[in-house]
Structure formats: structure tokens, C-alpha cells
Amino acid sequence: MTSVTALMGPAYEILKSNRDYLIRNGVPPSKASSFVAKFYRSVVSDAVVDCEEEGRFDDLIREQTPGGLSEQAIGNLIKKRVFEAYDAALDAMMKRLDGGKDGFL
What we know:
This protein is 71% helix and 0% strand. The protein has helices at 2-5, 8-24, 29-48, 56-62, 69-79, 82-97. The mean pLDDT is 96.
């Protein structure tokens, strides 16, 4: 499970990237930062409910509006292989933790 903790920095990078996107599109920096932080807090709050259940995350994904923005965003990220990149990063961290490699891709 330790390899997943390596995603703390990338999680903050996602927040920063989302904030910077909003700023580039005219949202004042303080409002952008506040919105992004509170949005992700809400998302994580939903994920924590019944998180011991194996299918909880699948349920949350299925709850997205069919044909909606979130469903489309998931498809776009799959098409760009974002989640595969996360798996590769986790594999690299696991190899580093196991002493086999330096953790770089």
C-alpha cells in the first residue's frame, strides 16, 4: 500500500493544474484555489463513505450522469491513457520500494 502514498505530490499537482486552468480562463486566483480545494474535498468525502466495500469506487463511477460531463471526462482520460500512466508510476514506486530499481520510468 505504501506505493500509493507516492501519489500525494501528484494529487497536489492535479489541484494546482485545475486551479491554473481556471485562472487562465478568467477566475480570480483566490476563488480558483478555494473552489478546487473544496471540490476535491467533497469528492473525497463521498469516497470515504463505505470505502471498505470493494465496489464503492465502481459505484461512484456508475453514479455519474450518463452522457454527462464527468462520464465524458473519464472517457477522454482513458483515451489519453492517464490511468495507465498512474499504474506505471505506481509500478515504478513499488520497484523502488522493493529495492529493485530507482523508481524512474
